[in-house]
Amino acid sequence: MSITPPFPVKAAELLDWKSLASVSDPIYLEYKKDNDNKTTEGLTAILTETRASSVEELQRNISAIQKVLQNHETYIPVHFTDKPEEYSKFWAIRSGIFPAVGGTRKPGTTCLIEDVAFHIEDLPNATADLQQLLTRHGYDDACIYGHSLEGNYHFIINQSFESEDEVNRYEKLMTEVKTLVVDKYDGSLKAEHGTGRNMAPFVRYEWGDDAFEIMKEVKHLFDPNNLLNPGVIFNDDPKCYVKNFKPLPLIPLPQDNPVSKVNRCIECGFCEVNCVSCGFTLSSRQRIVIQREISRLKQSGENPDRVTLLEKQFDYSGNQTCAGDGLCSMSCPMGINVGDLTHLIREQHLPKNSFGYKIGNYFGVHLSEIKGALRPILSLANFGHTVIGTKTMTDITKGMHHLIGIPLWTSAMPKAYYKKEIPVSKTEPNKVVYFPSCINQTMGLAKNSPVKEPLINKMVTLLEKGGYEVVYPKGMQNLCCGTIWESKGMPDIADRKTKELEDALWTASEHGKYPILCDQSPCLHRMRKKITKMKLYEPVEFIYVYLKDKLEFTQTNRPVAIHITCSTREMGLADMLINLAKLCSTKVLIPEGVGCCAFAGDKGFTHPELNAYALRKLRPQIEKEKIKIGYSNSRTCEIGLTTHSGIPYISIAYLVDECTKTKNKNNIS
Questions:
Q1: pLDDT value of residue 668
Q2: pTM for the predicted model, two decimal places
Q3: Helix axes 338-348, 284-300, angle to 10 degrees
Q4: What confidence score (pLDDT) does residue 1 get?
Q5: 298-337 per-residue burial string, b: 16 or more CB within 10 A, e: under 16
């Protein structure tokens, strides 16, 4: 039975058993369990897409496809969905097959991918032959996947080049692939991607002498000096595909540390879409590449001068300008977090007997005093801003930043917030433990802030509006989540501070009886990773879960911008933030091309150029939409956003408070 025109299938992506295994597909795992963990080589998935201009046409397409498939036995029933949140996950799995399979390779081996094509009528037999060919040469972990509707398959192998036997095995495989594709099935050795050195020796064999010479003449017309990709399409060396292998040496990393996952990287570049420094200095992928080269040179003992140069150049491009936000892990199918690698490198450069570590330890012990010392500095800067004006203050501080390296002041810098300003909460029916972050305990409002109350005060007002009495942890002036020490490469101090905070919150919450709120999303992110025996919330989630039903929302027509912080994305709260903003405003802008703001705790002060690069696309969108105010849930991020957008950014708590009032208690169920 065939599907009659118009052909409703727009895509049909095949994923063989190894592809499914690499991404821990739940159906694959179920199948394996049902078959007593025996072979799963018979399991294959076909991800099928159909499109239509109407719901009725879409349903007709689905019915036609299902009718064709009804005579075929499937492990699970055929299922179609038109929900983006469902089908996008399937396509994400398909997109991540290459790096996922590469991530399962034996450490030190190279992940290689090729794409071949067969005539559609030959596809079943050709697929089986290709599988058998890979198995016969000992590539038991190889996988086949790809565009079956076009007869275009990718196959992935993990290959070692450390011995002559391994090189010979690879050479025999590629020779037989050539024979299978070209001779037996009259297919194509390169279906959709460039030839590359791997297939360059076989171009003449596939196309014949006449076509090969014509292609060379065309190449010569455009590139008479052979400067463009020499040897990639045309190569006179028939053995070029088994020479000059790129090594993937292991970076010496502690195996009991999650950062060791870095060695599974195949350098595919999926991470770069979320890397804030990509295009500015090094991307997350390039950081791994450089560290691998440094490791290779150190292990081989060759060219120590090159090692010294690479380490020196890496300090700024790889270390200092890494925001360490971890967003790279969200687009990496293996979840590799290069921020963790950066933190480890910083730790290795900061031994416990160093002056920098001792300073960090002193700050950890005397945090309350350090915050007390920072407040007069903020007050002095605010006084100078008031007296000499924004332009003069900016010029002076910018000059001092470039001349002697002091942190850069901007007009968004707030004045001090003193602990005597922390409000005492009223008695309410419910209780919440509120831990104001170190930042918000230290920083008050900026000089030209559009609001009148510091965040701590506003947060208490909002909580009381929702019927919550606020409980503060004891000694909170010296408490911290530890993020600043973690980011600086002092994880032991960071963990110590987190433990102090955990103990104080455990007591304040009466052993987890009450929910706990921290007003800084990045701080809460670390708290959640380290503290698991209590319910911890940042502002957006707490408001959405605990306050939303107790408040009556009235939307404003004033357009607002929303910045989704890295921690908000990583905790899966981005949609919740957007939905909360839409409860408050009829016009909510989520600027495109703006991910991590790269303020990264203090990077916005010490390396403001990274913050400026990260937000280079923000201001034009703000001005185009005539937006006057923006909201987020991280104070330091808001400083950078205010600086580079031309509008003030403040906590989402202010918007919620402005647009809500306490619900009539008679209407609360």
A1: 45
A2: 0.89
A3: 50
A4: 43
A5: eeeeeeeeebeebbeebeebbbbbbbbbbbbbbbbbbebb
